[in-house]
Amino acid sequence: MKNITLLGATGSIGVQTLDVIEAHPEQFRLFAISFGENVEKALPIIKKFRPEWIVVKNDQVKQHLNSFLSGNHNIIAGETALEEISTHHKTDVVVNAVMGSVGLKATLSAIEQRKQVAIANKETLVTAGHLVMNKAKEHQVNLLPIDSEHSAIFQALNGESRQQIEKIILTASGGSFRDKSRDELKNVTVEDALNHPNWSMGAKITIDSATMMNKGLEVIEAHWLFNIPYEKIEVIQHKESIIHSMVEFVDYSVIAQLGTPDMRVPIQYALTYPERMKLPQSEHLDLAKISKLHFKEMDFSRFPCLKYAYEAGKTGGTMPAVLNAANEVAVELFLKGKINFLEIEHLVAKMLENHDVITNPDLETIQSIDKETRMKARNISGSL
Ligand code: NDP
Ligand code: MG
């Protein structure tokens, strides 16, 4: 029986992780959860799974939650509380499914305590990949990827050494606007952007998919998780999201991982690795029914965010943290109707242009650059 600490339980990955936990009561127990402020969504989870610990964003949310609960629930608030549950002696596995770079410290602390870490939160690896991976190496912790592309690569690699890899090929669905020209993107709405053709996900990642920033973040995520240079990471458009990614080896043999688009599959694999288990709710892949799979070369001028991510990744240092923080602010402003869709990429580009990179930054430097970028991005967002 593994005790799971689930960061971001009310989110899209969080809820699907709960499905996996519920499907295997003999294997998994929900020990602790965290969420931001969505008390309404958290209450049924708390009542059903009765986690020992609950972490919320701040004291206000704690009070609000307390007013609905009776009995002895341990509710704590804030970012240090995330670290507390992630390093708790009863925690066996930490699933990091929060949105944005808030999960960074909790991930680092969990690694220090040699917890098994299943990571969905790509912003953590983009912001501070070198710190996370160095720590993982130091404490001999395997980071198990939940992101479907990285789970696919992890499965395709299956113990093969890094020297055998010719390249990694990430697939990209193209997001909600894949068939629109740049001209047609000028007046798209938030509602249009949130309508992803293949996956049902949280708002931020759905917008990231439409701008292709999601794939850019995934390129950086793959660089860190698999210790592969950017020159050996390729992206190809594949609109059906059936091939989740591929690895080409030095002998040009290519291993791909396929499946219906269902995040519970990579979530469960990260929890059961190296074993596999039946996943009751999931479906067979029926290739005869799908009949055709499509592939298209990536167009970097159509999707400049992907280009920015490659550049920021190659530059390294604090640049990826700036890319991520600027993008988080830009997406939030777009979702609130304060900037238009194309201004997301303008804002990110401006922040990258104006940043003087600091090489090999420590955690404090990264956190202060993250904060400063968010502030500057908000300030200039009115004058794009
Ligand atoms: P959601 O927006 O659906 O959920 C985010 C979760 O994080 C919620 O539980 C939310 O709480 C919590 N949260 C948000 N902000 C804070 C904060 N400041 N402090 C504490 N908790 C916070 O996101 P997703 O589930 O879609 O994505 C989560 C992560 O997984 C992201 O990094 C994403 O890139 C990655 N990912 C997601 C995939 C998907 O299919 N959804 C696929 C691959 C990767 P509340 O509900 O209270 O706001
Ligand atoms: Mg993905």
UniProtKB/TrEMBL annotation:
1-deoxy-D-xylulose 5-phosphate binds at K122, S148, E149, S173, H196, S209, N214, K215, E218. Gene3D superfamilies: 1.10.1740.10, NAD(P)-binding Rossmann-like Domain. It catalyses: 2-C-methyl-D-erythritol 4-phosphate + NADP(+) = 1-deoxy-D-xylulose 5-phosphate + NADPH + H(+). InterPro entries: DXP_reductoisomerase, DXP_reductoisomerase_C, DXP_reductoisomerase_N, DXPR_C, DXPR_C_sf, NAD(P)-bd_dom_sf. Keywords: Isomerase, Isoprene biosynthesis, Magnesium, Manganese, Metal-binding, NADP, Oxidoreductase. Pathway: Isoprenoid biosynthesis; isopentenyl diphosphate biosynthesis via DXP pathway; isopentenyl diphosphate from 1-deoxy-D-xylulose 5-phosphate: step 1/6. Its EC number is 1.1.1.267. NADPH binds at T10, G11, S12, I13, G36, N38, N121, E123, G202. GO terms for molecular function: 1-deoxy-D-xylulose-5-phosphate reductoisomerase activity; isomerase activity; manganese ion binding; NADPH binding. Residues 258-375 form the DXP reductoisomerase C-terminal domain. It is an enzyme of class 1 (oxidoreductase). Residues 4-129 form the 1-deoxy-D-xylulose 5-phosphate reductoisomerase N-terminal domain. Mn(2+) binds at D147, E149, E218. SUPFAM superfamilies: 1-deoxy-D-xylulose-5-phosphate reductoisomerase, C-terminal domain, Glyceraldehyde-3-phosphate dehydrogenase-like, C-terminal domain, NAD(P)-binding Rossmann-fold domains. The keyword NADP applies. Residues 143-226 form the 1-deoxy-D-xylulose 5-phosphate reductoisomerase C-terminal domain. Its cofactor is Mg(2+); Mn(2+). Pfam families: DXP_redisom_C, DXP_reductoisom, DXPR_C. The keyword Magnesium applies. GO terms for biological process: isopentenyl diphosphate biosynthetic process, methylerythritol 4-phosphate pathway involved in terpenoid biosynthetic process. NCBIfam families: Dxr, PRK12464.1. Catalyzes the NADPH-dependent rearrangement and reduction of 1-deoxy-D-xylulose-5-phosphate (DXP) to 2-C-methyl-D-erythritol 4-phosphate (MEP). Belongs to the DXR family. This is 1-deoxy-D-xylulose 5-phosphate reductoisomerase.
